[in-house]
Structures are given as C-alpha cells and as structure tokens.
Design a protein that fits this description.
This protein has five helices and two strands. With 196 residues, the chain is mostly helical. Helix 1 runs antiparallel to helix 2 and helix 1 runs parallel beside helix 3.
C-alpha cells in the first residue's frame, strides 16, 4: 500500500517535472501530491497504532506470565508457563521486526520525498525560467508621416485591416503607436493612423 502511494507520488512528481506548462497544472499536481502525502501519513499512523497494540499485548502477556509464575509452581503448570514465555518471545521478535520494517519504510519514504522535492524544485525553476521575459522590446522608428488621425479599434479589426481601410501602412501604425505585439490590439484601443 505504501509503495503504491509512494509510486503514485513519484509519478505525480515526474509528471510535474516533465510537463509543467501552466501554473494551474502545477497547482493541481501539487494538490494531488498533498493528498498522497496525507494518505502516507495516515498509513504511518496506522503502523504506529499496530505497534502500540503489540506493546500492550506484550505487557499483558508479561503480567499473565508473572501471575502464573506466582500462583502455579507445580510441574504441570511449568509447561504452560514455558508456552507463554515462548509466545512472549515470539511476540517480542515480531515487535522488533515490525519496528525494523517501520524504520526502513520511513527511510525509504523520506528518500522518495527528498527526490520528489528535488524534482519539484527543478520543475518550478523551469516554469519560472519559461515565464520570465526573454525577448526585449522592439525598437520603434520615427519614420512615418506625422499627419493622420485617431481611430478607435472595433470588433474584428486588425492593424492590417485598419491600414488598408485608411490607405496607410502597417509599419507606420506600429511605429506611431509603439505596438510591441501587433496581434494584441484590443477593441476600444485608440490608434494614431498616419497618412501622407
């Protein structure tokens, strides 16, 4: 169960590192990772409860053996005491093995979490680098006619359609209005349209 959860967490982290395209995907993956961590935490608590139960049973068996040793000193009772002692030793061995298994599982989970954290940090660095502005603003020219008028962009219009409509040039409109991305001219924006 824990291995499948760790594998699931590892898969989410790998997916995060390989395909982080948008921050919303990263948030979803992070939320899924948190859920898996909560499941692992619950399993860890369950293991702790089992260990506590074994400790209680061990203590009860010791009390029972101690009481049997006091009340039954006859040779017939010594066989039962011996059997109880053997059971007690078996329980102690099982308890020690459970403690060792729990410790190794915790180490394994800690290593996996460390790997996942490292992968997530690399993924976040990649997302941060990919979201940082790389291109510099274009240089604009003053080589356009200074005569013209202001036009308010309407629905469906582009810079090229405005240039054709008023017998202007696209480069003049871009330079006059210092438009960095000609595809991002929105409805309602006022543009100076140079004309000869």
């Amino acid at each position: 169960m824990i291995r499948s959860l760790v594998y699931s967490v590892f898969c989410f982290a790998t997916l995060l590192a390989n395909s982080l395209c948008a921050q919303s995907d990263a948030k979803i993956l992070l939320a899924n990772l948190k859920q898996d961590l909560e499941l692992v935490s619950r399993d860890l608590n369950s293991l702790r409860s089992e260990v506590e139960m074994l400790r209680r049973e061990n203590a009860q068996l010791r009390v029972a053996i101690h009481q049997d040793n006091r009340s039954n000193e006859s040779s017939q009772q010594s066989g039962a005491v011996l059997e109880l002692q053997n059971r007690l030793q078996a329980l102690e061995l099982a308890f020690r093995q459970s403690e060792r298994d729990r410790g190794s599982r915790q180490e394994e989970i800690s290593k996996k979490f460390q790997q996942i954290i490292e992968q997530m940090n690399k993924g976040f660095e990649q997302v941060t680098k990919s979201n940082s502005p790389k291109a510099q603003a274009p240089a604009f020219s003053n080589d356009y006619p200074k005569n013209g008028f202001v036009h308010t962009v309407e629905r469906g219009e582009t810079i090229s359609s405005i240039a054709v409509k008023y017998k202007s040039k696209v480069s003049w409109i871009i330079n006059a209005n210092q438009i960095a991305d000609p595809t991002k001219v929105f409805v309602g924006r006022e543009l100076f349209v140079p004309q000869k």
